[in-house]
Task: structure prediction
Amino acid sequence: MAYFMPTPAENIPPAEVPEVELYHPHSWWTKYVFSQDAKVIAIQYSFTAIAIGLVALVLSWLMRLQLGFPESFSFIDANAYYQFITMHGMIMVIYLLTALFLGGFGNYLIPLMVGARDMVFPYVNMLSYWVYLLAVLVLVASFFVPGGPTGAGWTLYPPQAILSGTPGGGDAGIIFMLASLALFIIGFTMGGLNYVVTVLQARTRGMSLMRMPLTVWGIFTATILALLAFPALFVSAVMMAFDRLLGTSFFMPAIVEMGEQLKYGGGSPILFQHLFWFFGHPEVYIVALPGFGIVSDLISVHARRNIFGYRMMVWAIVIIGGLSFIVWAHHMYVSGMHPYFGFFFATSTLIIAIPTALKVYNWVLTLWRGNIRLTIPMLFAIAFIITFVNGGITGLFLGNAVVDVPLSDTMFVVAHFHMVMGVAPILVIFGAIYHWYPLMTGRMLDERLGKFHFWVTFLGAYSIFLPLHYLGFLGVPRRYFEMGETSFIPESAATLNQFVTVIALIVGFSQMVFLFNLAWSFFKGKVAERNPWQATTLEWQTPEMPPGHGNFGPTLPVVYRWAYAYGVPGAEQDFLPQNLPPDQTAADETAGHAPAVAAQPAE
Amino acid sequence: MTIISIVVILLAMGAGLYAIDRVPESRNWVLGGLAAIVGLGGLFLAAGSDGAIGYYGGLVLFAIGVLIVFYRMKLAFDEAEKPEHGLADARGSERTKNLVALALVLVGAGTVGFHFLSPWWWTPIASNWGYVDDTIIITFWITGVVFVAIIFFMAYCVYRYRYQEGRRAAYEPENKKMEWWLTGLTTVGVAGMLTPGLFVWDQFVTVPKEAVEFEVLGQQWQFTFRLPGKDGVLGTSDSRNIGPENPFGLNPGDPNGQDDVLVESDELHLPIDKPVKVLNRSIDVLHSFYVPEFRAKMDMVPGMVTYFWFTPTRTGTFDALCFELCGVGHYAMRARVVVEEESAYQAWLKEQPTFAQSTAQAAKDIGGEFIPVLSQAQADSAERPFTP
Result:
């Protein structure tokens, strides 16, 4: 039976395990602070991530000010600049994007979307957040230690990361960074195991794997990647801390620093790069896959159309996840590793473009012949597709070993990864917040503020990063405090940098509009209707909105069909919730079986 | 290029007129769109101009255009959403559809226009790696076509399939035939980029036999250079040997190293049209010696020797920059490469001291005899250039 066909009520299998009693909070503290409810933990994760993300935003302004107007700001010296770029990158990739997608959206949406009362290990879930918070606090503390935070670049390449020529390298900065990363990974592992086990174990009756919304597929696969990839970062953080504190030489060869022979010898800096990118490349997909999943659902709901090629979408997520573990060394074509690796990694990297391109096609084909509501989540979803395609195709440049040689470590790389794993996932996050805010708070976000926020963010971010690619072609290196005099960079590049800085400030300030909207709508926003977007998925079918403790009231929902029954011919409304029994609808759900007939435009 | 700009402008104008036609109150959108076109024109003007007036004038025009676009957008939103702003409207208004389709077209056309008119592009190549540039051009065409197709198709969908009360989307869970076709076409496109890429990579990693070796030594925060002497062989080195009198860390006992030419300045000379194999060595952290005009680089990694090769094909003086973050002085780590005719090169080469000469000089300077301290075991374990 095809995955999009409904199951008659009598064929739904009984529950395999009885329900487990939930922990019920009995005080304000256990309800709102040390809560074991995934929804509260999700909001705690989100607030913490957004708060630390604001720090990263301010850091990005500071570095843009320096790039646009060098020698104008006495408080930005080379040390500070390198600290800004390092902390900006680390915060955005790990502490904001990873934490928000998995800890935030994962916690909120997984139990609700698969029809569970909570995560399967609520206590461990709570610990996960508190360890994450500790990691963030250690990270913030590194700003206040003597010498300041590390300025080694977010990649933390040794030997420079732990030598005194780098800010924080000879002081405590790098140690705090490594400690914070290790804590983050410990916290994440507790949460991540929860997400995986909940998806595998706690789905409600009828919710087969091939009926899960793509959001859950994305977060689920990303979590598996993270559980497999983060240990590589964990060991490299521990080994680097040993090198720095105990004088081991895992990553340290014989070194003469500023004329002085150091006591290191025999280690390999490239070993660190392999470990780092064995984590670092899957990390790209840890951020991207939840975005892929969420954007699929946003497009489907707001285009009122079933997601195009659901089965292909699921397999694409899984294949991308698998392939992401064998492409890591495309970050290292010019690292000095054996050059023959280039053949393998260029091939595997370009192969990963095929399932990724398919996902893009299917998003666009979902719009095609849809009934598109241009709500704010939809606008962000469309903007995501543009920025993701733009950033994805520049990945085909950098993944092709020989093209990477002149482009590596230039502004082209900066533009590429900001477009593909900075701007694109953040646009998804915005879309997702506009989409699920009514569920979380019972109120709608203000639409006018939302549109202002959308247009400034999308057009602004696009015009920041598009031209930077071309500076990369010119040969402008990344991570330069000042460009200074060169024979090949024209004056116009400096003007472009000023333009980019101005736009970056504007885009940055428009985020304040968004934050204001979040706060204002919480108190004054329009009260949301039930299921305001008319979605099929279970999180909108809860008896209360926002959903209460235990999510679904006395009885868990039963799932009869896939998550994308939009526009089914014959149905009263243009959507069929997953938990609506098939005998209560006149819909002809076999329609999808005859694509030859359905291919006629339905107008 | 003129043709492309005209097409861009016509497309935008057409979309604008359409918007006016459908929604007369869309004054703000159309004015915003026109401002965008003027701004774009300003960018083109700046890109194409030789003088300062055209250049800065164009940029000012562009900045003003951007500001007006933002301003008009804000006005239009205020106006459009004032009355009947209810929950039903949260599903998107008629105006928004035209605007979004227009914006998508503008973003797509603007990206293509920017690509062709951007004043920022490759530095003129000065090495044999024209194939690298060719691979990039191929990649640009393949990916560019896909990008434009996707963005314009989305604009079409947003416009054509905008929300209408009571209409149903086509219910079509999958269309295997179409998905396999798209997979096949994508695979062909990917192969079209990968195949030339792998062929050129093979050339990049295969050093021609006649290539002459020289060494770039990186340290915080300068580059120095070492060329083989008359024997054509670089002596072995070990960073444990480094001291004030032996900054390159050559093994004093290695006869091959005695005639090595040491260039302790930031200027390297190379003869034109002779392939060279660059051996990269670092004594402290990662560095990378890169001349953008040569299109070739490889990180310097302490503890090992890495390499790449190229043939300089154009005389002149080129800037070399450090291209791997190496600490707080990274941005100031520079050098120069002078590519010149063989005779001029030989004249320069003669002026540079050899290792033996500089050791003798150092010994004289410190008033004593220089005694090599290297044991045989150390010499054996010394770093040697590797060849795959």
Summary: The first helix of chain B runs from residue 2 to 22. Chain B is about 50% helix and 15% strand.
